[in-house]
Design a protein that fits this description.
5-stranded parallel sheet; 7-stranded mixed sheet; binds 5'-O-[(S)-butoxy(hydroxy)phosphoryl]adenosine; Rossmann fold; 2 domains; GMP Synthetase, Chain A, domain 3
């Protein structure tokens, strides 16, 4: 285990505060006794089958689980449709006129869409796709702002069995292009733009750029969101509204096999190339349905708000599939938390009567920094439950959230999971679990998590690697077009029946899990995964750069910030010697934004003549982290050239001084 993680854990284990579920909460909670854990453990297949019976099937399954490690098939032989489960079955019954989505744009415009209306929209869009020749198994890329058309498009795909792949609106044209080409998508759905901090994110323009080299794309469907000028390619580009007004609102859902693909979502790994995580229909839907129901204790009268962008897995599972499968009312917000003021979230909660809030530690830390006067301006008494996701939450932020947002009366659920797990895996149950700030507590019933050491030996109390030692319904099935990487990355660290998430963790004597962050070369920047290699490749792609090393460093708000160490070429391609300076610094930063997206821009960039390497040539990343964090350097005796470090240190001191 890295020493930094050890320091973190020592601090965490000093955390003695405990919070029992409030009596009034527990009294009404869907789960209020710990017996569910034992029951689920005794027969986990039966446990999941119990939830599966709450979904609507077109044909029942023959077998709950077929597990030939590392291949799982869940609900074998079953047929169902995800859009029917998220929409039709509510639209047919007493929830028909219940709000499925309450949407608010950043400029303040609002739309409410009932389940009945959602069914019409989803069916119409499904027919639009069909009219454009989209068939079951075809890929459709969605590059959209947080507007209702995004979940409508996802569910429209699911209705006809097309595989959707949402690309977060913050990614660059090149990232979008690479993802489209990896999928071989036929259709791209985008918008003219989206609002972010009062500015327009020019999605259509970025899409035009991406589509200069995407041979499989036949059509681009464009939602008019901002009304700004856009360029247009006749024959390829079509307005969403024009297609929708002619489409029939009746579209019989495709009978999908339990194991038919539902979507692909890309996430960063330890190489320069992102992984297309593949999720399938029944297991994923069931996993998100069950966890939404129990972790968020969803009730019909709740107004539930997950603040994540749908471009990330949190939005897929807990803005769209999980809550809608439960027939919940979901608030969806387009923009930034500080537009027009730093109280936008609290204003939204007050006006819409939000009862459940699910957000990220990085946001909570920003709110802490902005001060309590912002939430204090608003009546937040509608809130009854708070959730956290995306990265470890430090006890200080946890306590602040509980006290100033939850008014001391709401349970806080810190939920650990990943793009790959599809569903929440380690979490409190709010009516059952005594929580401790900084701990995600226990595996969800039916899920089995353990701490293993390097050799796969179980660690009962202490630190090591987190491992998932039993299949779970929403597990990824493969990496799109790279099955070998799937086996290698996730199922080869120990035995092939044991899943390796890439996180370090510790288990205390009460059996609680304390998650410590990634143990691989993946950074978690403001709750988003970015591979160090991805940023390094983007930097090296610049003509002035000879070599680059990227490390994640501690950051008060983002959790992890990106620090880059760059060696310049002796002579740049223009023939003049390149020298590091602020001009080049911002040029390199812009280059990374162009290659990946603004989220991957280095926060700190150091120019160096050399990198600290061991005598065997390995970059000493820990040393780089020490330098970037301005720490006193530890042992450098293994260093090939100690002068490198003193030069880097003086650069750091110049910058800080
Ligand atoms: C990685 C997964 C899960 C949706 C958002 C991120 C870290 C996530 C927690 C948590 C500690 C957490 C892990 C994990 N992470 N939630 N509650 N406590 N760490 O999804 O982009 O797939 O990233 O985020 O390191 O491996 P993702």
């Amino acid at each position: 285990m890295p020493t930094r993680a050890d320091e973190t854990i020592e601090a965490l284990l000093l955390e003695k505060r405990r919070f029992k579920p409030p009596k009034s909460f527990a009294a009404r909670a869907s789960v209020s006794t710990s017996g569910v854990y034992r029951k689920a453990d005794r027969d986990f297949e039966k446990f999941w089958a119990g939830f599966a019976k709450e979904l609507e099937w077109m044909k029942p399954w023959r077998k709950v689980l077929d597990w030939k490690p590392p291949r799982a098939k869940w609900f074998v032989g079953g047929k169902l449709n995800a859009s029917v489960n998220c929409v039709d079955r509510h639209a047919r019954g007493p929830r028909a006129n219940k709000a499925a989505l309450i949407w608010e744009g950043e400029p303040g415009d609002q739309r409410t869409i009932t389940y009945r209306e959602l069914l019409r929209e989803v069916s119409k869009f499904a027919n639009v796709l069909k009219s454009l020749g989209v068939k079951k198994g075809d890929r459709v890329t969605l590059y959209m702002p947080m507007i209702p058309e995004l979940p409508i498009a996802m569910l429209g795909c699911a209705r006809i069995g097309a595989i959707h792949s949402v690309v977060f609106g913050g990614f660059s044209a090149e990232s979008l292009r690479d993802r489209i080409n990896d999928q071989g998508a036929k259709i791209l759905v985008t918008a003219d733009g989206g609002w972010r901090r009062g500015n327009v994110v020019p999605l259509k323009k970025i899409s035009d750029e991406a589509l200069t080299d995407t041979p499989t794309i036949e059509r681009m469907i464009v939602v008019k969101r901002t009304g700004g000028e856009v360029s247009w390619r006749a024959g390829r580009d079509v307005w969403w509204s024009e297609l929708m007004c002619d489409a029939s609102a009746n579209c019989p859902p495709e009978k999908m096999d339990s194991e038919d693909p539902l979507y692909i979502l890309y996430t960063s790994g330890t190489t320069g190339k992102p992984k297309g995580i593949l999720h399938t229909t029944a297991g994923y839907l069931l996993g998100t349905y069950a966890t939404s129901k129990w972790v968020f204790d969803l009730k019909d009268e709740d107004v539930y708000w997950c603040t994540a962008d749908i471009g990330w897995v949190t939005g897929h599972s807990y803005v769209v599939y999980g809550p809608l499968a439960n027939g919940a009312t979901c608030l969806m917000y387009e923009g930034a938390p500080d537009t027009p003021g730093r109280d936008r979230f609290w204003d939204l909660i007050e006006r819409h009567g939000v009862t459940i809030l699910y957000t990220a530690p990085t946001a909570i830390r920003a709110f802490m920094k902005w001060g309590t006067e912002w939430p204090e301006k608003h009546d937040l008494s509608s809130l009854r439950l708070l959730g956290s996701v995306g990265e470890p939450i430090n006890p200080e932020a946890w306590i602040w959230y509980q006290k100033f947002i939850g008014g001391g009366r709401c349970p806080v659920v810190d939920t650990w999971w990943q793009t790959e797990t599809g569903m929440i895996m380690i979490t409190p149950l709010p009516g059952v679990t005594t929580t401790r700030p900084g701990s995600a507590t226990q595996a969800f019933p039916g899920v089995r998590a353990e701490i293993l050491d390097q050799n796969g030996r179980k660690v009962e109390v202490g630190g090591g690697y987190l491992a998932i030692t039993r299949p779970w319904p929403a597990m990824l099935r493969t990496i799109w077009r790279d099955d070998e990487r799937y086996v290698k990355t996730y199922w080869s660290k120990w035995n092939k029946d044991t899943y390796f998430p890439g996180d370090g963790a510790k288990r205390d004597k009460d059996g609680y899990f304390w998650l410590l962050g990634r143990v691989d070369d993946v950074m978690n920047v403001a709750g988003h995964r970015i591979g160090t290699m991805e940023v390094e490749s983007a930097l090296v792609d610049h003509p002035a750069v000879a070599e680059a090393a990227v490390v994640g460093v501690n950051d008060e708000i983002k959790g992890t910030a990106i620090a880059a160490f760059v060696i310049l070429k002796e002579k740049s391609q223009t023939g003049t010697a390149a020298t590091g300076g602020n001009g080049l610094r911002s040029e390199l930063s812009a280059h990374v934004a162009k290659k990946i997206g603004a989220i991957a821009k280095p926060d700190r960039l150091f120019f160096t003549a050399d990198l600290p390497k061991t005598r065997s040539g390995k970059i000493m990343r820990r040393l780089l982290r020490d330098i970037a964090e301005g720490r006193v350097l530890g042992d450098t005796t293994t260093l090939a050239d100690p002068a490198v470090v003193s030069s880097l240190k003086s650069q750091y001191e110049d910058k800080e001084g």
